[in-house]
Sequence to fold (324 residues):
Amino acid sequence: MRILSGIQPSGALHIGNYLGAIQQYIALQHDNEAYYFVADYHALTSVRDPEKLRAYVRDVLLDLLSLGLDPEKATVFVQSDVPETVELAWLLTSVTPMGWLEKCVSYKDKIAQGIPAEHGLFAYPVLQAADILLYDADVVPVGQDQKQHLEITRDVAERFNSVYGKNEPVFKLPDAKILPTVAVVPGLDGRKMSKSYGNTIEIFEDPKSIEKKCKRIVTDSTPVEEPKNPDTCSVYALLKLFVDEQESADWAARYRAGGMGYGDVKKRLAAAIIDYFAPYREVRKSLAADPVKLEEIRRAGAERARKTARIVLERARRACGLGS
Ligand code: ADP
Ligand code: TRP
Fold:
């Protein structure tokens, strides 16, 4: 099966991104033909500092590769290294009714937050449809928040097929694979961990800083000697994701028994996160020190992606009467 997904380079990746998405992308690369890309065209709708954008793209690429995306197994690339994407987006946008985009929740949310109503933001789902259709993807693993964009992708593909693909469909209809939300990773303030809330622990953040952040996680003010409830505690919710069942059961018993301060469990949490990512940190360090190798991986990924992209784009151009 051909799997495809993209991740926006709008800041350093955090442990919510890892447990909610990246870990699953990595697992899927083994039995599938996987395409994963850094969605920098999409990030243009929010990142307006060119130096920052370039740095974020490099950082996300480094993060993905260090965490185990294997460029020998998966096609790992940067979206804008495949400019065919924007040409296909234009072909698609020409058959996309305004009403479909007007009802998009993510667009409406952003406008409600006071973000300027720019055309790129409005047309964001069409660009996403181009990303997906350009590679004949079968399955697109994404978080629940992307479900509507996947529905639009299918609608746009069907619309294009019905206008131009009378004899033979031009695009394959992709299926969304909504990633299990069992692990909604809480942030430092107890809300969902998210860049936009500024409550994240980054995967490759300095260990000292991870310790500091764990100390800041919001807890209730139950005194040390009193029993505590692990099930309503963000520190425990995070700890459970990084230690084995036996250890998490032991900590739950310590919460309930009383006599344990939140400082103890926060210390253990920081150590567990640091240990968990330690091997990846080493890989990242050596890859970051070898920019030539990173550039070569990026170039090779783009070349492989473009090979597929050119074939599909040509099919779409022919279907709608472009070219001689
Ligand atoms: P952010 O909210 O930090 O901007 P994104 O929306 O870019 O994160 O998320 C990228 C992927 O990471 C999505 O597929 C999403 O499902 C996953 N993800 C993000 N935050 C969390 C979280 N706190 N818990 C679980 N998964 C998450
Ligand atoms: N919109 C997605 C997000 O914000 C990122 C993305 C861009 C994507 N293009 C995609 C995801 C194609 C899956 C397929 O998370």
Remarks:
- The chain has a mean pLDDT of 95.
